[in-house]
Amino acid sequence: MNDRSPAFYILAAVFALYVLFLYGPMLAIFVLSFQGPSGGLTFPMNDVSLHWFNKLYEGNGIVDLGSAFRRSLALGVIVMAVTVVFSVAAGLAFRKKFRGSSILFYTAVASLIVPSIVTSLGIALEFRLGDDLIRNYLFDWWETGMGLFTSGLGAHLTWTLPFGLLIMFAVFNRFDHRLEEAARDLGATPWQTFWHVVLPIILPSVIGIGLFGFTLSWDELARSSQAIGPVNTLPLELQGLTTTVTNPDIYALGTAISAVSFIVIAACLGFVFWLQKRRARLGSDAGKGV
């Protein structure tokens, strides 16, 4: 017997329309990227093939996909690593009250409130002022300190670090301190306690922070627009193509970018699932041993 009220079906229909509105354009791009050589930018499709992916791989004189891909990938990996290290370290530090902790916390998360383009412009202005000072007072041959792994890295970290900090604060807020006390009572050093007790427990959350760091950096556009320096990341190349490309090359590029994000997400989720299965198996073996 169906006990659901008419309101359930109305809300379900509204939610389905919302999901369609949210993901419909992305699905349309995915489908149109597999058009044949005579395909255009709109439906109906003309044949089905990998023609535009091959054109994208060859370069086709439109965009240097290989270089842009490598730049974005390298930046995303570094942002991921720095975000994980600083987030975990900050989470451990903020477990105890210290002078200036509130100011430091609000300063760290303030970049979530400031518009991305304002952050990007501010970082670019800061580096330009620094370049002028260096040229005027130190090295007249100096060009700029802006670059992928200087101003670009800093701009992306203003976006990824607050998320990592908030996740770590939530994790350690629920952490059972008695586990650490037990490890110390057994003679473990602080480092051994962290490595053998704390880290295995928080590892799924750490993987989640790494996932956030990479994916947020991988498709970041606004914070890269002014602060990335003389080179472009893959999202910036994609933005540049939107005004010049008249064939599905751009759809193939968008599909390739999305595929990398999905692969990273799937890999992280798979690793977390493996950790959970491994932990359950070790717990079962320990129970049998007892």
The appropriate CATH architecture of one domain is Orthogonal Bundle
Radius of gyration: 24 Å
Would you report the number of β strands? 0
User: Which term fits the overall shape?
Assistant: globular
SSE order in H/E notation? HHHHHHHHHHH
CATH topology of one domain, by name, is MetI-like fold
Low-confidence stretches: none
CATH superfamily of one domain: MetI-like
Question: Taking all residues together, what is the mean pLDDT?
Answer: 84
State the end-to-end CA separation: 48 Å
Spell out the key features of this protein.
290 residues, mainly alpha, MetI-like fold, 72% helix
Written overview of the protein:
The chain is an all-alpha fold. It has a domain of 180 residues: MetI-like fold. The protein contains 11 helices and no strands. Helix 2 crosses helix 11 and helix 8 packs antiparallel against helix 11. 23% of the residues are buried. The mean pLDDT is 84.
What is shown here, in short?
The protein has helices at residues 6-32, 51-58, 65-93, 101-109, 116-137, 151-173, 177-185, 190-218, 222-225, 234-241, 249-289. It is mainly alpha-helical and 290 residues long.
